[in-house]
Every structure is written in C-alpha cells, then in structure tokens.
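Following up on my earlier thread - several people asked me to post the actual chain instead of describing it. Fair enough. Here it is, all 197 residues.
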Amino acid sequence: MLKRAINGFTTAMKGLSLTWRHLFASNAKRRVISVSDDNYFKQLDSSTNTIQYPHQKLPVPEVGRYQLDVEIDDCIVCDLCAKICPVDCITIESIKSTTGPIGETSDGSKKLLYAPKFDIDMAKCMYCGLCTIVCPTECIIMTNQYDRSVFELKNLNYEFADMAPEVAAEKRQLLENQIAERQAAKLAALNKKEGDA
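Reply from S.P.:
Thanks for posting it. Predicted structure:
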C-alpha cells in the first residue's frame, strides 16, 4: 500500500513539474504566419504560447469552407442547392412569374421565378460546399467568415430573400388567377370541341 502511495505521489510530481516548466518557460507571443510557410512547424520549437485570439488571428485559406452567403439578385431559384444539401439546411420557396422574365443575373441568365423565401440554417450546415458547386449562377458562395458566435440558436438562421410578404402574396394571387384562367379556357375549348362533334 505504501509503495502504491509513493508511486502515485512520484507520478503526480513528475506531471506537475512538467506543467510548471511549460507554464513559466514560454512567454513569447506566437508570430502569425501561413501554414504554407516553411517555418510554420519550426515555431513550435521556440517555446511560444498559442496565438492570442481574438487579438491575433490565423490567416484564412482561400479554399476554406466557412460561412455561406447568397447574392439573391443572381439567384434564378433553381432549387439545386436545396436538393443537394445532405442536411436540409436550405429552404427555398419560388413563385412563377406571370409576365415572363423578371430580370437577368450578372452572368446573363434569365430570371423567371421570384424567391419570397431563401433561408439557410447555419446551425444545421455541415460546411460541405456542395451547394456552391451545383449553383449555375454562382450566387451562393462560402466566405472567409468563420466566427459567428450567437447566444440564441435561432440567430443562425439567415434569411436572404428581399421580397416583402405583401408583394409575395400579390404574386401568388396573380399566379393563381392566371392558372384559373388557363383552366377555364381549356375547359371552354374542350366543351366547344365536344359540342361541335
């Protein structure tokens, strides 16, 4: 029993001496350099502390997968991003235009659908980047922003649509009226054809 106590005490003292040695030995600030720099891993030998975040930040790689952003004016509401999303964090609603094209995107694509709702729940997002790959107009991109700390989970649900609810309701009503008129015209043509026969 005494041997175990001595062994436990010796082990604890070795661990504490290592902790104390590292605590007081390194007091130099770490230089912020890119991972691609040849000296990146050599600075671990120079007994420096970790970077002092948020005062110091590591450079963000250009190909990093971080916060999603949507340029809604370039969106053609094709719904490909929502369909490919493996965690269903993208919610899109579309309303067909009754008057033909409603505009063009920056790459010249015709816009035929309104987007009254385009939401991304970043709390669900797994940052895979598939939505950015399938987007034909490249309206959805990954930015270099990664620190989005919030107190409420609902604040991670980003709404990108800029259409007012009243305008969306008006567009829906116009579409319903157009569909009803077309169905009435088809029915009238069918009745006339049956009457002529």
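The longest helix spans residues 165-196. That should answer part of your original question.
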